[in-house]
Design brief:
The chain is mostly helical and 262 residues long. It has one domain. It contains 8 helices and no strands. Helix 4 crosses helix 7, helix 4 packs across helix 8 and helix 5 packs parallel to helix 7. The longest helix has 40 residues. The radius of gyration is 19 Å and the shape is globular.
Length: 262
């Protein structure tokens, strides 16, 4: 919590120096995503200490990404289209939603790990933790989906003021809509009898976060559009990303072996 407070102070200082909300470029938005992720953990920490612990880990990884070589931390002037009060409202809402979705994803990842441990040592404490974290993850996804949807509507209003249209199938708009549909599907899986299980929900929740990553990094650095930050050649995907995806796939398979939970 002390680290979160210092993080917020840092954002406030950057806001004062830049004279605009500190989420106008890639570096600033990633740093704000880290802050919103920890904030989500603090909000739900009363339900379980895993919430704050999980978001602290995810925020640490996010801050590590913010300081990679291809991210420019320089304070820059706003381009004309961003000189609007909608920058503060729309972007803050979207990124706050990403924080809660990140919380849901990291908790679901912990559940998959618990399923693997359950195969090694089956006990009531693990089963209880799986149910507790699954419920907490669902709460995070509900809040995150709500904020993401509201932020998308606010973005449409801003787009109409700036470009004269609410929707233009821009890459960011399209992938934001895809993320909304994916998370809406994840949250409604429990209404399908054959898919009503904690394992299916947590598996889907974990993998669904890749839609958020695509909406942010994929669009900003590999697709062209009005929301793209990068210019020139796309940044090569780090090798560790492929190892991380492969590791998650293996973890999912191992967890699937112990998915039956009474």
């Amino acid at each position: 919590i002390v680290g979160f407070a210092m993080h917020i102070v840092g954002l406030a200082i950057r806001w004062y120096i830049a004279d605009h909300a500190p989420w106008s470029n890639a570096y600033e938005s990633i740093v704000f995503i880290a802050a919103s992720t920890v904030f989500a953990g603090i909000i739900l920490a009363r339900k379980s200490p895993f919430a704050l612990a999980g978001t602290a880990i995810l925020a640490g990884v996010t801050m590590g990404v913010a300081h990679m070589n291809f991210i420019n931390p320089e304070i820059t002037n706003l381009v004309p289209v961003l000189k609007s009060y909608w920058l503060m409202v729309h972007v803050a809402t979207i990124i706050s939603g990403d924080g809660f979705l990140g919380l849901g994803s990291i908790l679901s990842l912990l559940v998959l790990i618990l399923y693997v441990l359950r195969g090694i040592k089956n006990n009531a404490n693990i089963d209880r933790s799986i149910k507790e974290l699954s419920n907490l993850s669902e709460m995070g996804l509900i809040i995150g989906l709500f904020l993401l949807t509201i932020g998308n509507f606010l973005g449409g209003i801003w787009a109409n003021e700036s470009w004269g249209r609410y929707w233009g199938w821009d890459a960011k708009e399209t992938w934001a809509a895809v993320s909304i549909l994916i998370y809406a599907t994840v949250l409604h899986l429990r209404f399908v009898p054959a898919l009503k299980s904690n394992f299916v929900f947590n598996m889907a929740s974990t993998w669904a976060y890749f839609s958020v990553l695509m909406t942010y990094f994929g669009v900003n650095y590999y697709l062209s559009g009005l929301h793209s930050y990068a210019a020139g050649d796309p940044v090569p995907i780090p090798v560790w990303v492929y190892y991380a995806v492969a590791g998650l796939f293996v973890l999912t398979l191992l967890a699937a072996r112990n998915r039956k939970l009474t």
